[in-house]
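Good day; I would like, with your permission, to put a structural problem before you. I would ask you to consider whether the tokens describe a fold that such a sequence might reasonably adopt. The full record is reproduced below for your convenience:
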Amino acid sequence: MDVKTVSLATVFASLYAVLVIFLAPISSGPIQLRVADCLLPLAALFGWPVIIGATLGCLVGNAVSGIMLGSLIPFDVVFGSIVNFIATLIIFAFRKRKLLGCVLASLIIGVIVGGYMSIFVPFVPQPDIFGLSFQPWTAWVISVTLSTLVVVAVFGYILLLALSQPNVIEPMKSRGLKVYL
């Protein structure tokens, strides 16, 4: 790894963590809108700096926001980071089919994070989604999947498309950044 790769990974880690921490009330819980996840699709463009950055940023963001909110779940700190690693790897692997990669990553995040969070933070009272009553595991999975689809497959995908434009890519390449297309 060269200095530019490490620097870019640090930028993504910091940005992810800051977004999770400062938006903590909406970044966690059964109804969450983790704005930081809009950075995940950028793995298709930048590769390993985003994969490493989103993983470490999630680790720090989950730990600090959990402490701040008084709801630290060590399992979420560790496994949330692993799920981000897997999701960004999938997006990177599907970089030629960006939208498909974003949707697959969102589904994986929703099922895994929603699944384990239903064990550690069950809904009270019985959750309703769209007026329908679900068991806690199902409600968590649906809720996290839908919110992740919005952030990753809509907003993150739009951000990825905007940064994939030639007039944006060329200055990055001219400064020596490795960019995948």
Notes: The chain has eight helices and two strands.
